[in-house]
Amino acid sequence: MKRARLLATAAVLVLLAGGAVAAGTRGAPPSAPRYVTDDQGRALILHGFNTAGSAKGAPDALPELTPDDIDREYRDMGTNFVRFLILWRAVEPSPGTYDMKYLDKVAERVRWYSDRGYQVMLDMHQDLWGNAITPTGVAGNGAPAWATHTDGLPVATEQFTWEMYYLEPGVIRAFDHFWNTTGDYPDLMDRYAKAWAAVAARFKDVPGVLGYDLMNEPWGGSVQGATFETGPLATLYRKTIARIREVDPDGWIFLEPQAVGVNWGLPSALPRFDDPRGGPPRIAFAPHLYPLPLDLGDDYAAGSKEWTDRTLGWWRENIARTAERMRAPVLLGEFGLDMTRPGASDLVKKVQGLSDQVGTGMAYWSRDADAWGPYDAKGKATPLPGVYVRAYPRAIGGVPVSVTYGENRLQVAFDANETGPTEIYVPERGFPNGAQVDGGTAVWNAARRILTVTTKTSGRVILTVTPK
Ligand SMILES: CN(C)c1ccc(C(=O)NC[C@H]2N[C@H](CO)[C@@H](O)[C@@H]2O)cc1
Q1: In this predicted structure, what is the pLDDT of residue 159?
Q2: Which residues form the Glycoside hydrolase family 5 C-terminal domain (predicted)?
Q3: Could you tell me if the CB of 368 is within 6 A of ligand 1?
Q4: Which of 252, 280, 356, 387 is 20 to 30 A from 323, comparing alpha carbons?
Q5: Best substitution site from 217, 224, 263 to test ligand 1's pocket, by max atoms within 8 Å of Cβ?
Q6: Same domain for 373 and 224
Q7: Backbone phi, then psi, for 279, in 5-degree steps?
Q8: Pocket flag, ligand 1, residue 370 (CB < 6 Å)
């Protein structure tokens, strides 16, 4: 029965997302991927986690996290990136008042990461709009109560899956007010954009802050699909890009499509956005990936594996087409699943392969201490660390051409430039005694397991990394 209901739910949501399908999946094949770059201009391969869902309901809006947690994550997986959740309710507790104490606490945690060589993306997170959609605050997260207007419309709390809250009249109304679909609260999007400007002003010169993910999994309320993405969502993005660029000319700005449909592999209609900064644009496309069969409760095994692989193919093609339209690099902002389920490790490997094809970095959902994360509620490793760890180029001193991962072998091809040396992480597994590099001059940092490789600064370079 539950599966039938879930299938019906998915059908409804796909219909809602129908406009996105109108974007079509034909057209010229995608060209070479682009890359997010660091402050030296090197191409980044971002590999990390979402930290963390525990922030959503926390009174202080901060994740359960200690520096030791980051040390363990690095020891086990050599990650170099974090999608760090922040919440509008904490940034702007009352209209026009920005909580600098909260932002200072975020900055303290950002420092924990940057001191360890991580890149940090700040994610203005929401699910279901905000915790004020129900009187008990048990459902949503993100938006402050003062920006939540359900007009007294019902929000039933006995949902069989949390996603169903998105279809509740009161939740749809709250989103409709925000997107100015109702016309009753025309200032809300501007306030959101100004809140982002306050965050960017605080973090624009903070080491390690790579950029800003403007809204987690946007939902159009009663406006869906291409109409939503090219209408209200694009308006919010343009307002927020302008506000951020008034204070921070250099931070990367990450734009998400609507979640429904696109998470599953349907096309996004997000248009291209101008970046008013002087110099090359720093706007990236940041979709999520949650295959529909798995969302419906199936495992990546047996019959569902074939169906899931088909949807992964859709996702890859459609993401590449949207990135091409946006002329933007791609960052996979979320993917994840219950690591205790059959086939879970195979799915993670499959997504890593997809990510390599699209030339994107990735942040796994999530770093929380549960069955989805790398360590469970008792701190015991799940299968995730064993499959999420691999040798990879953290930063590339040129324009990447290909990154080829083999069993205990990595090959990185790029057209070199003068941005700086190439940094390669090499795990203990497979490379117990470190690595040797053909194609460049490597300095080995045994403590951090990083090869810093100096190469010529023009022409094609091919680095081959093998165990010592
Ligand atoms: C109907 N709508 C709008 C909808 C449905 C399902 C998701 C979802 O599963 N998202 C995947 C994960 N992303 C969030 C955090 O961003 C996690 O809580 C979800 O597991 C999102 C939106």
Answers
A1: 84
A2: 390-460
A3: no
A4: 387
A5: 217
A6: yes
A7: 110, -175
A8: no
Residue with the nearest Cα to atom 15 of ligand 1? 127
Q: Is 113 in the pocket of ligand 1 (CB under 6 A)?
A: no
Instruction: Note whether 261 and 304 are same-domain residues.
Output: yes
**346 pocket-lining for ligand 1 (C-beta < 6 Å):** no
Mean pLDDT of 247-253: 98
Question: Is there an atom of ligand 1 within 6 Å of 38 CB?
Answer: no
Measuring CA to CA, which residue among 320, 391, 333 is closest to residue 362? 333
Identify the domain containing residue 397 by its residue range: 391-468
Model confidence at 48, pLDDT cuts 50, 70, 90, reads very high
**62 Cα: distance to centroid of ligand 1 (angstroms):** 20
- What number is the ipTM of this complex? 0.96
CA dist 187 and 95 (Å) reads 11
Structure confidence by residue, pLDDT tens digits, 270-328: 999 999 998 999 999 999 999 999 999 999 998 899 999 999 999 999 999 999 999 99
pLDDT at 16 over 60: no
Q: Which residues contact 370 (CB under 8 A, 6 or more apart)?
A: 376, 377
Q: Which band of pLDDT confidence, cut at 50, 70 and 90, is reported for residue 21?
A: very low
Of 163, 179, 224, 228, which is best to mutate to test ligand 1, by the most ligand atoms within 8 angstroms of its C-beta? 163
The arithmetic mean of pLDDT across residues 242-260, rounded, is: 98
pLDDT at residue 30, rounded to an integer = 55
Report the first-to-last Cα separation within the chain, whole angstroms.
Answer: 56
Domain shared by 297 and 375, yes or no: yes
In the numeric block, which tokens belong to residue 375?
């360590």
CB-ligand 1 contact for 258 (6 Å cutoff): no
Q: Which of 326, 360, 389 is the last residue of a domain?
A: 389
Least confident interval from 4-13, 111-120, 385-394: 4-13
Q: Are residues 371 and 265 in the same domain?
A: yes
Integer-rounded Cα Rg, in Å, for the chain is 21
Residues 202 and 66 reside in one and the same domain = yes
At 149, list the tokens. 């207007």
Do 332 and 434 sit in the same domain of this protein? no
- Cα gap 158→137, rounded to integer Å: 14
Do 398 and 385 fall into the same domain? no
Rounded to the nearest angstrom, the distance between the alpha carbon of 296 and the centre of ligand 1 is 12
